[in-house]
């Protein structure tokens, strides 16, 4: 392991005046040039071990044991893992505070956008901009065609039976709210005593809407617990919760904190045994693996364009035609979603426009279609992306799990449950606040997320922590990015007064 000892320059008798020459800095056998400048000083961060300024502090000794194990690089079977595509993302050439290229490891929050998508959005506004479904002129016809073609692409991407089962929304949060209000409240499908089941690990977007609807309808909101050992949904407890009162089960396909792929097909089958409907939050799944709504069998599935190389402002609600048509009332009223309007009542448009009131995000939908083309055509499709991310995700997991002081949330990569992890690790370092850690990493050009990741109950009540740090991968990342992250992590932890040591083999 490496142990970092911070001392004040010029005052410790073991150390000469700090500089960057390759001379020895101490008479204790330290290799030439082994000292490192403490370049992560920031006044917002707790000072590292009596430090007084970033200029006066450096590593005076670097003690190596455990067979000279390198904390910043772990052996990779199969060699380097290159990104599927780096050059198509102009933002990844942006530089950090010191002029180094930014390493972006926050794709679970939002993905970066390739030029193909940027140009599609720009091209729409340059050449085709007009309102859809409302004009006989050429631009309106072109805009309508591009908008509806995007819907067809989404339907095929999710293997929906019909494109009319795809409703465009602003985001996945709005898609969930559409189901909650249009099905649960306005169509009267949730009544006093009915039960809604969600898990304790849900994103707030799949929790808060159901809290609001339960309060307004008198329904009861219940929560699937986690298995205390594996940190996965307790399926047997879920089975016991189900009854004739259960009307809806809403769960995530992939947890944005726990980082594993839930068997949503099995959950759907179990829920259907008691006649309950199922909504799947697939925001962390659709960008990373093939998703087949017909195979899953769920009534609804939601996804977000901005997490899969698409623009912000566009989300997707898949709904079975029967449910959308006969069991959901219009959620928002206005233009586009009507058939005829009278002074005292209105009739409503056919699917999917019944749920798309007002002018939609036309350009964003067109660019979302371009993102799907990019994933399918430029990157070889979702099976290929899934294989790549599985390999890279394993390397991220192993790079973090090698440290004794690091806790990664969710099941181990290799587990007895047969559950797959994705390229997402929410973690904490013993004794280090995750926000401090993320800030220090940012000073070295590493972009990760810190906080509760819109999952406060999971962190506070289940994991018993205030928050976590999270690194997440996508198609533009490589093993070199993970090496840079791990190396910066070691130095950031040391600068914050902690240490990282290797677990025994």
Automatic annotation (TrEMBL):
Keyword line? Pyridoxal phosphate, Transferase
- Catalytic activity as recorded in UniProt: (sulfur carrier)-H + L-cysteine = (sulfur carrier)-SH + L-alanine
Tell me the SUPFAM superfamilies matching this sequence: PLP-dependent transferases
InterPro entries named in the record: Aminotrans_V_dom, Cys_dSase_SufS, PyrdxlP-dep_Trfase, PyrdxlP-dep_Trfase_major, PyrdxlP-dep_Trfase_small
Q: What is its EC number?
A: 2.8.1.7
Short name of any one Pfam family annotated for the protein = Aminotran_5
- What's an example of a GO molecular-function annotation for this chain? cysteine desulfurase activity
Which cofactor names does the annotation list? pyridoxal 5'-phosphate
Q: Which GO terms describe its biological process?
A: cysteine metabolic process
- Residue ranges of domain Aminotransferase class V in the record: 103-485
Please state what the protein is called: cysteine desulfurase
